[in-house]
């Protein structure tokens, strides 16, 4: 009886981990990071956003354009000013909106 309970418990755990693994993999795919260079057009610290004129992002089939990006951490906006050249990395959030994970001025 104890062996059957252990097998049932192990089987359920293995199924759980396996099922979760597929979901986790899908989330990782959806959050692929993209590295881009651009120029700061405006900084909105209150809204945790930065407007960037950025280079094309070929893997997303995006042409070069100017758009707002939200940032994961508002402190990343400290010291950024309009006209600064930057390199940044972003992911696409679950709603499809771009979200900057890292941004730094270029020298």
Overview of the molecule:
- The chain contains 1 helix and 5 strands.
- With 107 residues, the chain is an alpha+beta fold.
- It has a 5-stranded mixed β-barrel.
Summarize the structure.
The chain is an alpha+beta fold. It contains 1 helix and 5 strands, in the order αβββββ.
Tally of separate helices? 1
Order of helices and strands: HEEEEE
Assign a percent range to the helix content.
25-40%
Mean pLDDT rating = 81
For the termini, the CA-CA separation is 69 Å
Q: Describe the biggest sheet?
A: 5 strands, mixed, barrel
Return residue spans where pLDDT drops below 50 for at least 5 consecutive residues: 1-29
Radius of gyration using CA atoms only: 21 Å
Class inferred from helices and paired strands: alpha+beta
How do the strands line up in the largest sheet?
1-2-3-5-4
Strand content: 35-45%
